[in-house]
TrEMBL record:
Protein name (Swiss-Prot/TrEMBL): Condensin complex subunit 1
Subcellular location: Chromosome; Cytoplasm; Nucleus
Superkingdom of this protein's organism: Eukaryota
Organism: Periophthalmus magnuspinnatus
Region (Disordered): 460-485, 540-561, 894-926, 1242-1335
C-alpha cells in the first residue's frame, strides 16, 4: 500500500490534493448512484470483512464490525510493516467515517426534533447511537497504539477531529441529561474515560469540561457523574484537580458577568461534592476563595461542598488533629455565612446545617451555638430563610443528643440538685487538702511512745484463750501480705494499736518470705517497731515502692473519679437546659408564624409544632392549640396540614388491641378538651367529625368507650367525663333516643354538684338538635312535660340560690335549649322566672324585720338576700329576654314562611291549568318588578316587630316586672356596688334593649353612662360588646353615639381597649359604622404598650386597606388629628404610626394627590411641630416623578418653612430617594431642586428669591406648560376630598357627676344629662326587616 490515510481537519480536505502518499477521495458519485455504491459496499463487507473499507472508503458507509477481527491482528507478532500500515489506515478511515456520520445524524436528529414532532427515524437513530458508542468503546479498549510508530497516536485522531470531538458533540444535545438518555450518557462517559486513561486526553478533557459547562447549563450533573467515574473507576484522580483548579482560577468579576456559566459551575461542584467528597479535600482551598467573591451562586456551591465534607468525611471521633482543625475551620466558615448578605446563601447554609444535623455530624460542643444562630434567623426578612430555619430547628429537636423530653422547668430542679452536690464535693475535697500535707513520719512520731508501750505489753506472756476469737476472725480476712499491711496501717490510723501489733505478729508466721515482715525473724520490741514503722510510713519517697498503697491514696483517687463524673453530669444538664431554653424561645417565635400569609411558612410552622409536641417540649401544646383555628382556613393546603397534624398527634393511637387503641384515642382527645375554650371546641369538632366520617374501624369502639366514661361505668375523672359528653356530640352519635340517659346521668338529682358537667351535656344536646332542625320539614319540638325540661327547670330553680360560680354558664345554655326544643318555651320560661323570683322573695322574708332594705353597704353578712343570687336572677331575666326575641325572629318567622309555602303549594294543586298559567304570568310580572313574595314577608316581619314592640314588655308580661329593677341597679352604682350584681344587671339591661327600638332609646343614655363612668373594667367591656350588637340591630339609633364608642379606645384598662378595638373592627369592616375621622383613635393603638392590642390595630388597618381608597381618604383627617398640639403626641410615635399608614398608599395617582394636599396643609398649619409632621408625612410617601413635579408646583406652600431643620431634613430625604436609580435628566432636576432647598434653608427665602431666580422659574413654568401633566382624575379628587384645617371647637364643659352612695341623694344624677345626649344627624341606610329576618 503506497498511501497513508491522514485524518483531515474538516471533511472537505479529503477531496483536495494533499501531501505525498496521502489518501484522497477519487470517486465522488452522484446522488443517484449512492444506492448502487452502498449495495456493492455491503456485498464486499460480507465477503471480505472490515478490510474492504480500503477499496470502498469513497462510498462513506459506516462500518461497525471493525472491532471483531482487530484484537487477533494486534496480538499477532508476525505482522509486517505493510500489514500494520494497512490496518492502521483501515482503523483511521473507519473511525473517521463513523464519527463524522454520527455527528451529522445527531445534528439532523436535533434539527428535526425542533421543527417537527419526534418521528420514527429519530427513535431508530437513538438505538443506533448506542450501538455506535458501544463499538467505539470496544475498539479503544483494545490497545491499538501498536499500529502507530513508537505507539504515539496522532492528536488529530483522538482530540481534534474524530473520537472526542464526536463525544462532545453528542453531549451538546439538550436531552442528554434526561433519564431516557442514560445509555447514551454512560457510553460517552466510558468512551472518554478510556481516552483519558490510555490516550493522554486528560488535559483536553479538563478544558472541554469547563468550556461546555460555560455554555450548556444542563451538563452540570452529567459532567459531575463523568468526573466521578473517571476518578474512581478509571483511577484518573488528576482530572478532579485540573477541573477544580480551572474553576478556582475564575475571577469574581468574570463569574459575576451574565453568561459566565456560574450556575453550571455551582451545580457541578454541588453534585461532585455529593458523589466523591473524599477526593475534593486536597483541592478545597482553591474553592474557598470564592466565598469572598461577589457571586452568591458560587458561595452557595462552596458551602454545599463543605457540608458534604463535614457529613461524610470530617465526622466521628477518629479524626486526627489535622482533621479536627479542618472540621472546626469549615464549621466556622459556615456559621459566618449564616449572616451572608444574600438571602439565598443564608437559606442554603441553613439547609446544609440541616443535612449535617440529620447525618449526626454536628459536634456536641457546637449545638448550642448553631441553635442560637438559627433562632436568630427566624426573624429574617426572607421567607426562604425562615422556612429553612424552621426545618433546621425541627431537625435539632428530632436528633438532639440530650433527652427525649425537653423541658427547662423539669431540668431546672435536677440541675440545681446536681450543681449543689458538685459544689459540696469540691468543698469536701478542698477541706481534705491540709490533712493530706501531714507526713506519715510526723504521725508516727506522735504515736510512737504509746505504740511502744502496747508492743511491750503484747510481747509479755499472757493467757491462751485471750484474743483467740479475734485472731480467728482476722485470719479469715487475710489474703496476702499487701492486704495485711494495709489493714495494719489502718489499725494504726484508727488508734487500734493492740490489733495492729497482734496482726503484725501473726502475719510473720503466715507470710515468712514476705519482704514486709522479714524483720520479724527475731521477734523483739525493736524489730516489731521497725516493721510497724516500715508499714505505716510506706508512702514516703525513701521507702521501698513494693509497699502496699495506703488507703489515703485509694480514697483520693476514688474521690477524683467521682468528682469528674459529677462535673460531666452537671455539664450535660447545663447544656440540656440551654438547648431546651433555645427551643422554647423558638416555639414562641414560630407560633406567631402560624397566621402568616405565606402558605409554605405556615406549613413548616405546623410541622414544627407537631415535632416539638412529640418531644414533650414545654409550652409545645400552645402551638398545637393555636394552629387549631386554621381548620377553617380558605387555603386548602393549610387546612390539610392542620388536619394531618392533629391526626398524627391525636387520631393515630398506639395499642395492641382495638380496645386499647380506642382508649388511647379517647385519652388523647380528652386531654385536648380539658380547659379548652368554646372556640377551641368548635375547631376540634371539625377534625373529630372528619375522623368519624372517614369510616375508621375504631369508630364503634370509640363510641362505646365514650359512653362508658360518660355514664361512669369506667372510673374516670370528672374532667374526662365532661370531655366524653362533648366528644359524643361532635361524633353526632347522640340520637334522640339517648335523651333519657343524658338527663338521668347529667341532669338528674346530682345536677347541682357539677353544673359544668350539666352545661356540657346541654351543649351536646343543642348540637344534635341543631343538626335535626336543619331539615325543611316541620320543626322538631318536645312537649313541656318531657323529662328533659323537667330536669332543666329544677336545675335552674335550685341553682339560682346556690351561689355556684358555674351556674350562670349552665343557665344560659339551658335557656337556649328550652327555646330550641320546647313547644311553648315562653310559657315554660315564664313559670321558671316566677319560681326563681318567689325563691328570692322567700329568702327576703326569712331574713326578718331587722334589715328591711334589700341590700345595705354591699355587705353580704347583713343582707336578707344574697347579691350573687340576685345577680343570677337578673342574668336569667336577660337570657330569657334575648332568646325570646331570637325565638320570634328565627323559629316563629321560619315556621310562618314554611306554612305559607305549604299553603301556596296546596292552592296551586287545587287550581286548574288555566288558572295556573294565569298565576304564572302574574308571578313572572311580580318577579320582574321585584315584588315576588314581598307582601307576605313584609306582613310577617311587621307581625314579629309588633309583638316585640307591644307585647314582650307589656305590663301583663313577666319580663316587664324586672326592667325597673335592672334600671335601678345600673343607675345607682353607689348603692349596688357588688361587682357580680352590677355586671349581671348591665348585661341583662342590654339584652332587654335588643327587644325593640323604644326599649333601646329609653335606656341608651343610661348604658353609655355605665360605659364611660363604671369603675369596673369588666362592666365597661361588656357594655362595649352590648352596644356593638345594638349598633348592628338599630344603627340609626346608635349612630349619634359613635364618638362615645371610639372614646373607649383610650381607656386606661388594656382589656377594655382590646374589646373596643375588636368590636369597632367588626362594625367598620362590615360597613355598619361609617369610617370617619375618629379612626385616628384606632391609629393610636398601633403604638399601644400591649403587643396584642397593637396587633389588633394593625390587623384592622390591613383589612381596611383592602377596601377601595379607604385609608387614602382618611389619611388627611388622621394627620390633622394626630398633629393637633393639644394632643401632645411625641414625634417618634407620630412617625411610627404614619410609616405604617403610608405603607398602604401604593398607587401613583394617590401619591400625587396626597403630595398636593399635604403641601396645601402647610398654609393653615400654625405651629412648628405641625410643619415638621407634615414634612415627615411627605417623606414617607413612595415619591414618583409626577409627585416630584407636584412638589415643585407647591413650592410657595412650604418654602417659608424651610429654615426649620424638621422641615428641611425630610425634604432632603425625599431628594435622596428620588436620585436612586433615576435617569440622568430627571436626576439633574432633582439635584437642582435640592440646591434650591439648601439655599433657602441656609440663607432664608427673602435672600434667595432674586429676579434671576424668578426668570428661571418662569422658564421652568413655560416648559411645564409645553408638556402638561395628565389631569385625568385630578379634578375629581379635588372635588371629592376636602382637606381644610378644622377649627377648634368650643366644647361646653360637661357637668361633673359623681356616684352617690347615699340612699337619700338623687339617683338619676348618675345618668347623662339631656344636654349630653347626642342628636340624630344622619340616618344610616339599612336593609329591610325582611332581609334581616332571612339572615
Amino acid at each position: 500500500m503506497s498511501w497513508d490515510f491522514i485524518v483531515p481537519v474538516c471533511v472537505g480536505d479529503l477531496v483536495k490534493t494533499g501531501g505525498i502518499n496521502q489518501y484522497v477521495v477519487q470517486d465522488v458519485v452522484s446522488p443517484k448512484q449512492i444506492p448502487q455504491s452502498i449495495s456493492r459496499f455491503k456485498a464486499e463487507l460480507r465477503s471480505k470483512g472490515s478490510m474492504c473499507i480500503l477499496q470502498h472508503f469513497d462510498t462513506g458507509y459506516i462500518v461497525t464490525g471493525l472491532a471483531g477481527s482487530l484484537p487477533a491482528l494486534l496480538m499477532s507478532t508476525t505482522m509486517s510493516a505493510a500489514e500494520r500500515k494497512e490496518n492502521l489506515n483501515a482503523v483511521k478511515m473507519s473511525v473517521y467515517l463513523l464519527c463524522k456520520l454520527t455527528e451529522q445524524l445527531e445534528s439532523d436528529s436535533y434539527r428535526q426534533s425542533i421543527v417537527t414532532a419526534p418521528g420514527k427515524g429519530m427513535h431508530q437513530w437513538d438505538s443506533e447511537r448506542e450501538a455506535v458508542l458501544q463499538a467505539l468503546v470496544q475498539l479503544f479498549q483494545v490497545d491499538i497504539r501498536s499500529l502507530w510508530n513508537l505507539s504515539l497516536v496522532e492528536e488529530e485522531f483522538i482530540r481534534y477531529v474524530c473520537v472526542t470531538c464526536c463525544c462532545y458533540k453528542l453531549l451538546e444535545n439538550p436531552t442528554i441529561s434526561y433519564v431516557k438518555s442514560k445509555p447514551t450518557r454512560d457510553g460517552i462517559i466510558h468512551l472518554l474515560g478510556v481516552m483519558i486513561k490510555k490516550y493522554n486526553h486528560l488535559l483536553g478533557a479538563s478544558v472541554k469540561v469547563i468550556q461546555l459547562l460555560q455554555h450548556f447549563e444542563q451538563l452540570s450533573s452529567v459532567f459531575a457523574q463523568a468526573v466521578s467515574v473517571w476518578s474512581t473507576e478509571y483511577g484518573v484522580r488528576a482530572v478532579i484537580g485540573e477541573v477544580i483548579r480551572e474553576i478556582g482560577l475564575k475571577s469574581s468579576e468574570e463569574l459575576a458577568r451574565e453568561g459566565s456559566g456560574v450556575k453550571a459551575f455551582a451545580a457541578f461542584l454541588s453534585e461532585l461534592g455529593s458523589l466523591v467528597p473524599e477526593l475534593l479535600i486536597p483541592y478545597i482551598s482553591m474553592l474557598i476563595t470564592h466565598l469572598e467573591g461577589a457571586s452568591h451562586t458560587m458561595r452557595m456551591a462552596v458551602c454545599e461542598v463543605l457540608g458534604e465534607l463535614l457529613v461524610h468525611i470530617l465526622c466521628g471521633d477518629g479524626l486526627d488533629d489535622a482533621g479536627k482543625a479542618d472540621r472546626d475551620r469549615f464549621f466556622d466558615t459556615l456559621q459566618e455565612h449564616l449572616h451572608d448578605t444574600n438571602s439565598h446563601v443564608r437559606a442554603r447554609v441553613i439547609q446544609v446545617f440541616t443535612r449535617i444535623v440529620n447525618g449526626k455530624a454536628l459536634p456536641l460542643c457546637r449545638y448550642s451555638e448553631v441553635m442560637k444562630l438559627t433562632v436568630g434567623r427566624l426573624m429574617d426578612k426572607s421567607v426562604n430563610v425562615v422556612k429553612s430555619a424552621i426545618q433546621l430547628l425541627a431537625a435539632f429537636i428530632a436528633h438532639n443528643p440530650y433527652s427525649c423530653k425537653l423541658s427547662s422547668e423539669d431540668l431546672k430542679k435536677p440541675l440545681e440538685k446536681e450543681t449543689a452536690k458538685l459544689k459540696e464535693m469540691k468543698e469536701r475535697r478542698d477541706g481534705k487538702v491540709p490533712v493530706a500535707v501531714i507526713k506519715a513520719s510526723e504521725l508516727w512520731a506522735a504515736m510512737e511512745p504509746e505504740l511502744l508501750v502496747t508492743v511491750r505489753a503484747e510481747l509479755e506472756p499472757k493467757g491462751e484463750s485471750e484474743g483467740e476469737e479475734e485472731e480467728e476472725e482476722e485470719e479469715q480476712e487475710e489474703e496476702d501480705d499487701r492486704a495485711t499491711g494495709v489493714k495494719i496501717a489502718q489499725y494504726l490510723r484508727d488508734n487500734k494499736y493492740r490489733n495492729a501489733v497482734r496482726l503484725c505478729v501473726k502475719a510473720h508466721s503466715r507470710f515468712p518470705e514476705s519482704d514486709i515482715f522479714s524483720r520479724l525473724s527475731t521477734l523483739s520490741s525493736e524489730t516489731l517497731m521497725d516493721t510497724l514503722a516500715f508499714i505505716f510510713k510506706g508512702n514516703e519517697p525513701n521507702v521501698s515502692q513494693n509497699l502496699p498503697p495506703t488507703p489515703q491514696k485509694e480514697e483520693k483517687e476514688g474521690d477524683e473519679s467521682e468528682l469528674q463524673k459529677q462535673e460531666m453530669l452537671v455539664q450535660y444538664l447545663t447544656d440540656t437546659e440551654a438547648f431546651a431554653l433555645q427551643v422554647e424561645k423558638a416555639i414562641a417565635v414560630i407560633n406567631t408564624m402560624l397566621y402568616w400569609k405565606t402558605t409554605s411558612v405556615v406549613q413548616e410552622a405546623v410541622q414544627f409544632c407537631v415535632t416539638v409536641c412529640e418531644f414533650s417540649v414545654a409550652n409545645s401544646i400552645s402551638g398545637v392549640r393555636k394552629m387549631l383555628p386554621l381548620v377553617w382556613s380558605m387555603d386548602a393546603a393549610v387546612k390539610d396540614a392542620v388536619v394531618q397534624a392533629y391526626r398524627r398527634l391525636y387520631l393515630n393511637p398506639q395499642g395492641d388491641t382495638v380496645r386499647m387503641k380506642a382508649q388511647n384515642l379517647v385519652d388523647n382527645l380528652s386531654e385536648l378538651m380539658v380547659d379548652a375554650s368554646l372556640g377551641t371546641i368548635q375547631c376540634l369538632e371539625e377534625i373529630v367529625q372528619e375522623f368519624f366520617g372517614s369510616g375508621s374501624s375504631l369508630q364503634s369502639t370509640v363510641i362505646q368507650v365514650l359512653w362508658e366514661r360518660f355514664t361512669g361505668k369506667r372510673e374516670t375523672s370528672i374532667l374526662h367525663r365532661r370531655a366524653a359528653v362533648l366528644l359524643l356530640g361532635m361524633a353526632r352519635e347522640v340520637v334522640l333516643g339517648n335523651l333519657d340517659t343524658l338527663c338521668s346521668v347529667a341532669l338528674g338529682e346530682k345536677v347541682t354538684e357539677d353544673f359544668l358537667f350539666a352545661r356540657d351535656t346541654v351543649i351536646t344536646i343543642c348540637s344534635i338538635t341543631d343538626h335535626v332542625r336543619q331539615s325543611k320539614d316541620a320543626p322538631f319540638r318536645l312537649p313541656q312535660e318531657h323529662q328533659l325540661f323537667t330536669c332543666l327547670f329544677n336545675a335552674i330553680a335550685e341553682g339560682v340560690v346556690m351561689e355556684d360560680p358555674y351556674w350562670q354558664s349552665f343557665m344560659e345554655q339551658a335557656v337556649r335549649l328550652i327555646y330550641f326544643l320546647s313547644e311553648s318555651p315562653d310559657q315554660l320560661c315564664s313559670r321558671l322566672l316566677q319560681r326563681c323570683a318567689r325563691q328570692l322573695l322567700d329568702q327576703i322574708a326569712e331574713g326578718g324585720e331587722t334589715n328591711k332594705n334589700p341590700i345595705q353597704d354591699g355587705s353580704q353578712d347583713s343582707e336578707p338576700v344574697s347579691c350573687v343570687c340576685l345577680a343570677q336572677l337578673l342574668g336569667l331575666c336577660g337570657a330569657v329576654a334575648f332568646w325570646q326575641v331570637s325565638h320570634l325572629e328565627r323559629s316563629v318567622s321560619a315556621e310562618l314562611r314554611r306554612r305559607r309555602g305549604e299553603t301556596e303549594e296546596r292552592e296551586e294543586k287545587e287550581k286548574g291549568p288555566t288558572s295556573k298559567s294565569k298565576a304564572a304570568n302574574e308571578s313572572a310580572m311580580e318577579e320582574e318588578l321585584g315584588l315576588m313574595g314581598a307582601s307576605a314577608e313584609d306582613t310577617e316581619a311587621e307581625l314579629i316587630r309588633k309583638i316585640c314592640e307591644t307585647e314582650l314588655l307589656a305590663e301583663e308580661n313577666l319580663l316587664c316586672a324586672f326592667l325597673p329593677l335592672l334600671v335601678k341597679v345600673c343607675s345607682s352604682p353607689g348603692r349596688y356596688s357588688h361587682p357580680q350584681l352590677t355586671t349581671a344587671a348591665c348585661l341583662a339591661l342590654s339584652q332587654y334593649m335588643m327587644i325593640s327600638p323604644s326599649a333601646c332609646e329609653e335606656n341608651l343614655r343610661l348604658m353609655f353612662t355605665v360605659l364611660e363612668r363604671s369603675s369596673l373594667p369588666v362592666v365597661r367591656a361588656n357594655a362595649i360588646i352590648a352596644l356593638g350588637d345594638l349598633t348592628v340591630r338599630f344603627p340609626n339609633i346608635l349612630e349619634p353615639w359613635t364618638q362615645n364608642l371610639y372614646a373607649r379606645l383610650g381607656d386606661e384598662e388594656p382589656s377594655v381597649r382590646q374589646t373596643a378595638v375588636t368590636v369597632l373592627t367588626q362594625l367598620v369592616l362590615k360597613d355598619v359604622l361609617k369610617v370617619k375621622g375618629q379612626i385616628s383613635e384606632v391609629a393610636l393603638l398601633l403604638i399601644d404598650p400591649e403587643p396584642h392590642i397593637a396587633s389588633l390595630a394593625l390587623n384592622f388597618f390591613n383589612e381596611l386597606s383592602t377596601k377601595d381608597n379607604a385609608i387614602y381618604n382618611l389619611l388627611p383627617d388622621i394627620i390633622s388629628r394626630l398633629s393637633d398640639p393639644e394632643r401632645g403626641m411625641k414625634s417618634d410615635d407620630f412617625n411610627t404610626i404614619m410609616t405604617q399608614l403610608f405603607s398602604y398608599i401604593t398607587k401613583e395617582r394617590q401619591t400625587e394627590s396626597l403630595v398636593e394636599k399635604l403641601c396645601q396643609r402647610f398654609r393653615t398649619a400654625k405651629t412648628e411641630r405641625q410643619w415638621c409632621d407634615l414634612a415627615v408625612s411627605l417623606s414617607l410617601l413612595s415619591m414618583c416623578e409626577r409627585g416630584f413635579k407636584r412638589l415643585q408646583e407647591c413650592w410657595e406652600c412650604y418654602s417659608d418653612k424651610l429654615t426649620e431643620p424638621g422641615v428641611y431634613q425630610p425634604l432632603l430625604n425625599i431628594m435622596a430617594k428620588l436620585r436612586r436609580g433615576a435617569k440622568a435628566q430627571f436626576k439633574a432636576q432633582v439635584e437642582e431642586f435640592e440646591k434650591r432647598l439648601t439655599a433657602v434653608h441656609t440663607k432664608g427665602l427673602e435672600n434667595v428669591e432674586s429676579p434671576e431666580m424668578e426668570e428661571e422659574n418662569q422658564k421652568a413654568e413655560k416648559t411645564a406648560l409645553r408638556t402638561p401633566l395628565p389631569t385625568r382624575g385630578r379634578s375629581k379628587a379635588k372635588e371629592g376630598d376636602s382637606f381644610v384645617t378644622p377649627r377648634k371647637s368650643r366644647r361646653t364643659k360637661k357637668a361633673q357627676i359623681t356616684f352617690s352612695s347615699d340612699e337619700e341623694e338623687d339617683e338619676e344624677d348618675a345618668v347623662m344629662a339631656e344636654s349630653e345626649t347626642p342628636k340624630v344627624t344622619t340616618p344610616i341606610a339599612r336593609t329591610s326587616r325582611r332581609a334581616r329576618l332571612r339572615n
